[in-house]
From TrEMBL, chain A:
Keywords: Membrane, Transmembrane, Transmembrane helix. Residues 11-159 form the UBC core domain. Residues 173-222 are annotated as: Disordered. Coiled coil: none annotated. This is UBC core domain-containing protein. The chain crosses the membrane at residues 246-263. Pfam families: UQ_con. SUPFAM superfamilies: UBC-like. It comes from the Eukaryota. It comes from Penstemon davidsonii.
UniProtKB/TrEMBL annotation, chain B:
Residues 33-253 form the OTU domain. It comes from Penstemon davidsonii. Belongs to the peptidase C65 family. This is ubiquitinyl hydrolase 1. InterPro entries: OTU_dom (IPR003323), Otubain (IPR016615), Papain-like_cys_pep_sf (IPR038765), Peptidase_C65_otubain (IPR019400), Peptidase_C65_otubain_sub1 (IPR042468), Peptidase_C65_otubain_sub2 (IPR042467).
Length: 280, 253
C-alpha cells in the first residue's frame, strides 16, 4: 500500500525521497526530521534550542506539511512542544526572501527551513501572528520541561514517529563543545545573504490583529544577532504566570484599601471617629 | 501553450487598435507566418523558449545541437555546484529537461510526436519543471558573471545581483527581462530573436518599422567564427514576439 503512495513518477515524491536520503546521510546535531511512512508529505521533526540562548538544552517537536506541488511551494511548520516563542499547533509560515515574502525557492529544502527555524527562535517576534513573547525565565523553564516527555499528537503512527524522533533527539550530544560543529554545518542555501521572513499567519483570528511587521533575519545562524526584545502588545492571548501573580497582589491591596476607607467613613458617620481621632 | 494560429489572428485582435500597431502587424505578416500564444503567468518567456527550442529540435533532428546544448547544461551544473547550490535541489529539474531533449529526438524508445510535445507543454508537472530548470540556468549564469550583469541589474531594479536572482529569477512567476534572456541565451549557447510589437515608431526614420533584437550568446560567436558556416551571426531559430509584459512564439515564413 505504501508503494502506491510512493508514486516515483510524481516529481514531488521524487524530490522528497531525495531529501529524506540526504537528511539521513548527513545527520545534523541541531535537528532531526522524518516523514510518516504512510504519507511522505507529512513529517515530524525535533530541533534543539539554539546555543547561548534561553532555549539552549530544549528539544522542540513539530510537524511539517509539504504541499502537493513541493518544491514549488514552501513547506509549512508547526511546533508541538511549548517553547515560549511560537504558539503550538499553529502554522508558522517561513518563506524566503527579503522583499517578497511569498517567494519560496525550489533551491531551498526542509533542511534549510529547519536551520532557519532554529535561527529564528532567539529573535524578537515583533508581533508576528503565531508568535509568543515569553520572558527568558519562562522560556528557560519550558526548555527544561521540553526534555521530559515527547508531545502527544495525532495518529498512533505519528505518535510512534514522534517517540522515535524523541529517542534519537535525546541521544544527540548535549555537551556544548561537542555540538559546536553543528552550527556551521547545515547551511545548504546558495547565497550567504539569503534571509528568511517570519510572516503573519493567515489562520489566526482577527482578534489577534497586532502589528504584522514581518521581520527578517539572516538564515545563517552565526550571523543572527539577538535583536532587542521589543515590547509587543499581545492582546490577552498570552497568559504569563508572573503577570498574573502581580495582578492578584494589586487587586488584593486595592480591596484592603477600599475596605479601610469605607470603614473609616462608616465610623465617622456614626460618631465613633473619636476612637481614632482625638480632636473634637 | 496554445495551438499555432495564423498571424491574421493577431491583426484581428488589434482591429480597432492603434494605427501604428496595425502597421507593424502588417509588416510582421511579410516575414512571419504564425504565432503560438503562451499563458501569461509570468513564466511566458521561459515557457515560450522551452516550446520553441524543443519544437525546433523535434523538427530539425539536429543531433549536433543536442550534443552541444548538453555540454552547456553540464557546465551549468558545475556552475551551480561551485556557487554552493546543493545538488538535490536542482538535479530533478536538470534530469527532466534532459529527458525532454531525448524525447524530441526520434529513434529513442521514449520519442514523442509533435502532438505529445504540445501535451507536455501543457502538463504542469513537466512544463513547470522545465521553466524552473531555465530559471536555475539563468540564475547560475548571472551569479557566475555577476560583474558583467551588475550594472544592468542596478539599472533595472537597484538591487544586488544576489537579491535580484533571489527575488526575480529563481521564483516561479517572476517576469523576464533582458537580463534573464541574455543569461539564458549565454548559458545555453542558444541565440534568441525577440521581435517587439509596441506603439513606438521603429528605428527607420519616419516610416514605421518593427524592431527586433538578437540575443547572441558570447561563446557561440567564437566557435562559429572558425567553422565554415561563416562569421556572420548565427541565425536564431527561436523567435519570440514581445508585447509589453508578454512573450509568444513567432514562426517565420
Amino acid at each position: 500500500m505504501a508503494e502506491d503512495k510512493y508514486n516515483r513518477n510524481n516529481p514531488a515524491v521524487k524530490r522528497i525521497l531525495q531529501e529524506v536520503k540526504e537528511m539521513q546521510s548527513n545527520p545534523s546535531d541541531d535537528f532531526m526530521s522524518l516523514p510518516l511512512e504512510e504519507n511522505l508529505f507529512e513529517w515530524q521533526f525535533a530541533i534543539r534550542g539554539p546555543r547561548d540562548s534561553e532555549f539552549e538544552g530544549g528539544i522542540y517537536h513539530g510537524r511539517i506539511q509539504l504541499p502537493a506541488d513541493y518544491p514549488f511551494k514552501p513547506p509549512s511548520f508547526m511546533l508541538l512542544t511549548p517553547n515560549g516563542r511560537f504558539e503550538t499547533q499553529t502554522k508558522i509560515c517561513l518563506s524566503i526572501s527579503n522583499h517578497h515574502p511569498e517567494h519560496w525557492q525550489p533551491s531551498w529544502s526542509v533542511r534549510t527551513a529547519l536551520v532557519a527555524l532554529i535561527a529564528f527562535m532567539p529573535t524578537s517576534p515583533n508581533g508576528a501572528l503565531g508568535s509568543l513573547d515569553y520572558t527568558k525565565e519562562e522560556r528557560r523553564a519550558l526548555a527544561i520541561k521540553s526534555r521530559e516527555t515527547a508531545p502527544t499528537y495525532g495518529s498512533s503512527e505519528r505518535q510512534n514517529l514522534i517517540n522515535e524522533v524523541c529517542d534519537q533527539a535525546s541521544e544527540l550530544p548535549t555537551d556544548k563543545n561537542e555540538a559546536e560543529g553543528g552550527a556551521t554545518e547545515a547551511i545548504s542555501q546558495p547565497a550567504e545573504n539569503d534571509t528568511i521572513n517570519e510572516e503573519p499567519n493567515e489562520t489566526s483570528s482577527t482578534e489577534n490583529n497586532v502589528a504584522q511587521a514581518s521581520q527578517s533575519v539572516p538564515a545563517v545562524p552565526e550571523t543572527v544577532h539577538q535583536q532587542q526584545q521589543l515590547h509587543v502588545p499581545q492582546t490577552g492571548v498570552v497568559h504569563k504566570p508572573a503577570d498574573d501573580r502581580l495582578f492578584t497582589w494589586a487587586a488584593f491591596g486595592l480591596t484592603i484599601a477600599i475596605v479601610v476607607l469605607l470603614l473609616k467613613k462608616f465610623l465617622k458617620a456614626n460618631g465613633y471617629d473619636v476612637v481614632f481621632m482625638n480632636e473634637s | 501553450m496554445m495551438s499555432q494560429e495564423p498571424l491574421t489572428s493577431l491583426a484581428a485582435e488589434y482591429k480597432s487598435g492603434s494605427p501604428i500597431l496595425l502597421e507593424k502587424i502588417k509588416l510582421l505578416n511579410e516575414q512571419y507566418a504564425a504565432i503560438r500564444r503562451t499563458r501569461g503567468d509570468g513564466n511566458c518567456f521561459f515557457r515560450s523558449f522551452m516550446f520553441a527550442y524543443l519544437e525546433h529540435i523535434l523538427e530539425s533532428q539536429d543531433r549536433a545541437e543536442v550534443d552541444r546544448i548538453k555540454t552547456n547544461v553540464e557546465e551549468c551544473r558545475k556552475t551551480l555546484l561551485s556557487l554552493g547550490y546543493v545538488e538535490f535541489t536542482f538535479e530533478d529539474f536538470f534530469t527532466l529537461f534532459l529527458e525532454q531533449l531525448e524525447g524530441v529526438l526520434s529513434g529513442n524508445e521514449d520519442s514523442i510526436s509533435h502532438d505529445e510535445l504540445v501535451q507536455r507543454s501543457r502538463d504542469q508537472s513537466i512544463s513547470d519543471y522545465v521553466v524552473m530548470f531555465f530559471r536555475f540556468i539563468a540564475s547560475g549564469e548571472i551569479k557566475k558573471r555577476s560583474e558583467f550583469y551588475e550594472p544592468f541589474i542596478q539599472g533595472l531594479t537597484n538591487t544586488s545581483v544576489q537579491q535580484f536572482c533571489k527575488s526575480s529569477v529563481e521564483p516561479m512567476g517572476e517576469e523576464s527581462d533582458h537580463v534573464h534572456i541574455t543569461a539564458l541565451s549565454d548559458a545555453l549557447g542558444v541565440p534568441i530573436r525577440v521581435v517587439y510589437l509596441d506603439r513606438s515608431h521603429g528605428d527607420k526614420g519616419s516610416s514605421v518599422s518593427v524592431n527586433h533584437h538578437d540575443f547572441t550568446p558570447v561563446a557561440c560567436d567564437l566557435t562559429n567564427a572558425t567553422s565554415a558556416s561563416g562569421s556572420e551571426a548565427v541565425k536564431p531559430f527561436v523567435t519570440l514576439l514581445y508585447r509589453p509584459g508578454h512573450y509568444d512564439i513567432l514562426y517565420p515564413k
